[in-house]
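Continuing the series of single-chain predictions for the mutant panel. This is the parent chain; the variants come on the following pages.
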Amino acid sequence: MLGILGVGHLAASLLAGLQRAGFAAEDVVLSPRGRAVEMSARYGHALAQDNADLVARTKLVLLAVRPADAPAAVTGLPWRAGQVLVSACAGVPLAHLPVHPAKAMRIMPMTAAEIGASPTVCFPDLAEARRVVEAFGPVIPLPGEADFQVATVSAAVYGWTLDLIRQTADWSAAQGLDAAIARRLNALTFAAAGALAAQTRQPMPDLLHDLVTPGGITERGLQVLVGHAMGTAWASACDAVLEKLNGTVARP
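Parent structure:
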C-alpha cells in the first residue's frame, strides 16, 4: 500500500503517472489536505484521517510537502521497520527526516512524471521503492547525497527549458508561424536534442562541432548568445539554485 503525504501540484503529477502506470486506486491512500479531495474524486483513492493514520495504513510513503515543512511533517509518526519513506522534497537531507526504524530515500521527479517521462534521480536506490519511482520515467540512481543535491539542480533546468520552448515558440508565432505548430516544433526540437545527448556516447564538444558549420545558422546564433554571456549566466543560475538547495533546511 502506497501513501502520499502532501497532495499539492507535484503530487498531482505523480498520481497521474501512477495511474498511467497501472497502479490500482485501492493501492494508494492520500493525506487529507491540499488537493487530496480533488485527486480522490478523480482517481478513486482513499483519504486517510490524518498523517499518522496514513503511515499506519501503508508500507511505502511518498512525501511531497513543501521542503521547509518536511521535517515536521514526518516527526512523531508511527514509523516501523520494513517501511520506506520516499521524499520528493528538494534540498531536504535524509538526516532531517526522522523516520527510524523505517528506511528513507530521496527522489527528484519532475511534472513530466504524469506522462511517464520524468528522469528521476534517487539516493539511495532502494529496491522496495523501485516500482513506484519507475512509474514516473527513467530512474537515475546516484552514489551519494552530495551528488543528489547537485543533480537536483536539473529540476530547475527543466523549468527553464520549458520557458525556452515558450519563448522560441512565441517568437516563431510572431513571425507568422501557426502557434500550435510553433509550440510542437520547438518542443520536439528540444526533445530531439536531449535524446541525442542521452543516447550517444559521442563527447558533447564533438556533437556540437558536427552541428556548428562554419558560416552557418547555428554558428551565427551561438555567436549572439556567447556575446550576451549566456554560458556565464546559465552557470550563475545553476550556482544560485544549488546555494538555495543547500540552505533549504538549516543544518543541525
